[in-house]
Input
Amino acid sequence: MLWNKDKLFCDINPTCYAISEQKEICVRHIHDIMGKEKFAEHYMHGLLPNLVWEQGSHLIKHGKGIDMRLQYNKAVNIRLACVKLNELIIRPGETFSFWHTIGKTTKSRGFKDGRVIIGGKLIPGIGGGLCNLSNTLHRLVLHSPLEVTEFHSHSDALAPDEGERVPFSSGTSVSYNYIDYRFRNNTDQNIQLIVWCDKEELHAELRSQRPFPYRYELSEEDHHFAEENGKFYRISKIYKDSYDRETGELVNKELVLDNHSEVMYDYDLIPKELIRV
Output
């Protein structure tokens, strides 16, 4: 058997992938134990008074080629995770870690098969679909002065847009525990996460003790689709715009994503008017 030197160990077969994944999980555990980060672990019943931003997201995607069993399983996974996130307080100087808060997604904890991306393909996996939740949290944080300290992206074109295009409607990748989503409370006041599910909707709020001096919005420029080597990609630039709360003046425009996402759904569903040759 000839050995392909360019092939990664994790790509040889599923067993090698599992070994590599466990190694990464152990490395992250050791790093967190030896590190100096203080993770948010305290909860407060009741709401902090100031609503910084609220965000909603569909739990269930409907459309051609979508496995509805995995969609409903995803909703189960998100509901379980919300229980661990709801009413969490992130105090000044503390770091929020998606996986430190939620823990490992296992069958014994009630998690089910949802959609996960491995090797650029959508396949079933325990706890799949939580990227929907991590992305909703990321959109909350982008509407605040909080500092994102760990972010991993995947395609934000997993399914056709439902209605008007929403910048950063998806695209935040998480996988226990080495692909995490983290942010630090770099402000001088407590921050609170409120998350819950209602029917087929996910709801999330970011709350604080008092308003911040700036308000934040997301904007997208040059949004289109393009074909490259037989595959279609969503392309755009997404910015975080900061406005002075008193004057309304735009004081900063920060590029938060230079988007180049492979389309993971039926190409026939791409709006023809958005395809650029």
User: Anything to note?
Assistant: The mean pLDDT is 90. Residues 236 and 259 are 5 Å apart (CA to CA). Residues 20-29+36-212 form one domain. The first strand starts at residue 42 and ends at 43.
